[in-house]
Amino acid sequence: MEKTKKAAWLIDYPIKGSGGHKTFFYYINHLIEIGYEVDVYVYDFLGVNASPATDPSSLAAVVADYLIPSRANFYYGWKPKGVYDFMFATWFPNAPVVADYPYAKHKIFFEQEYEPFFTMMGDQTIKAQNAYHLGLTGITMGGWLAKELTAKHNMEAYPLYLGADLDSYYDKGRFRDNAVCFIYQSNKPRRCPQLTIETIDVLHAVDPSIRIYTFGGEDVPPVAGATHQGLLRIKDLNKLYNQCKVGVAYSTTNPSRIPFEMMAAGLPVVELYADNNLYDIPTKAALLAKPDPFAAATAILKLLKDEKLWAEKEPRRLGIYAN
């Protein structure tokens, strides 16, 4: 009888609604589906939770509540035990743990963002850069990130292309309001919360009749003209996408998964004109705008007011995510 293959993932403590954490568990669950036994080592490295769950059943419950259910085995702390066919680092603080672990055949850095961009130049930037020089094999979300790791750090890296869960995000074919939705996450500088506020301010000043929705976190953006939806469940997020005509998600360290989910739900997208987005965003269904509130608002207005342009960018007509 063939021996069951084993994989281990080291992740930081789950954040409610986090797309990055959810992506971990999409792949963890797929490994389980194809016959792997998967151990997930969770650790609140930054100490942001006053009372983090630490026993296996509580960790599984947190993952199911915050993200998606998983049949993985859960452990608290980045202290792996056992022999593994694959071991995955997912953040630069746990990359050295994986690199130094003697009982893993293949050691992977599963990278979703260019992490040296997360902080101002200093100690943490250097630590993030050094994590790419530990001998781990990179698996990245998107082609731009694989290119960056190879070109800047001579790291062997392979891209997984960004997409969406089509069982969760789909075009209902309903009438769409004269509305636009923005992801707003005040705690994530890489999602440009200030640029989001300024874009909404311009958009509302030009045409107050446009319905503007924000979502993605508990914090309400301090700007007039927007209705904040908070942190939405997947089914409610798909409902919001189907209600709107344009989706806006700003990405600076690697494309977010959000624009791809918007497209799957039939939304043309406005994103930033930046190297990372030129690599990975399907521009047939998007307008890329300069990182300026007036340029971004202009792109949104074009899609809202020019029916021919909107039809040309409609993901369903283009066959994007039709399969």
Automatic annotation (TrEMBL):
> Where would I find the WsaF C-terminal domain in this sequence?
179-300
Question: One Pfam family this chain carries?
Answer: WsaF_C
Q: Which domain of life is it from?
A: Bacteria
Q: Which InterPro entries match?
A: WsaF_C (IPR055050)
Q: What is this protein called?
A: WsaF C-terminal domain-containing protein
| Species for this entry | candidate division WS6 bacterium OLB21
